Amino acid sequence: QVQLVESGGGLVQAGGSLRLSCAASGRPFSNLHMGWFRQAPGKEREFVSYITWTGGLIDYADSVKGRFTISRDNAKNTAYLQMNSLKPEDTAVYYCAAAKGVRVAVKLPTTGEYDYWGQGTQVTVSS
Fold first, then answer.
1. In angstroms, rounded to a whole number, what is the distance separating the alpha carbons of residues 2 and 47?
2. What is the rounded CA–CA span in Å between residue 96 and residue 44?
3. E strands along the chain, which residues?
4. N or C: which end of the chain has fewer CB within 10 A?
5. Mean pLDDT value across residues 70-78
6. Which helix (H) or strand (E) holds 15?
């Protein structure tokens, strides 16, 4: 079992930045692909970004490309999402998720590929 705890959310003005963290425990972190998803009120959970267990493959949703950066520190069992140039439409609950390393990277934008989820952290961007 893996426990994921997100932190770093909050209220920020448009154009501002936040860095989300996802601390993992319970299973070797280096064997896990890590993903970030978000869910706005009344909308389905959507893919934001993923990074494979080696860090060799990274992908982003088109809506965040060039503004968000995903990274991981295997020594700290933590994944990060640096969010810059935030827009009001980025407002959502952001969820960290972990997928076992056997998952195929091309499927990682899909929520069903993830085995573990965090509780979420609220990000609110004011205009």
1. 20
2. 15
3. 3-7, 10-13, 18-25, 32-39, 46-51, 58-60, 68-73, 78-83, 92-100, 116-117, 121-126
4. N
5. 95
6. none
In the Cβ-directed half-sphere of 1, how many Cα atoms lie within 13 Å?
2
End-to-end CA distance of the chain: 40
Residue type, 54: T
Taking the C-alpha atoms of residue 98 and residue 50, their distance in angstroms, rounded to an integer, is 9
Per-residue pLDDT at 33:
96
Please tell me whether residue 40 adopts helix, strand or coil conformation. Answer: coil
Distance between CA atoms of residues 36 and 21, nearest Å = 10
Tokens at 44, concatenated:
């389905």
From the number of C-beta atoms within 10 Å of its C-beta (0-12, 13-18, 19+), residue 109 rates as middle
Indicate the SS3 state at residue 30: helix
The span from the CA of 16 to the CA of 83, in Å, is 8
Tokens of 119: 């509780």
Q: Report pLDDT digits (tens) over 6-32.
A: 999 999 999 999 999 999 998 888 899
Task: Report how far residue 44's alpha carbon sits from residue 8's, in angstroms, rounded to the nearest whole number.
Answer: 22
DSSP reduced 3-state for 72: strand
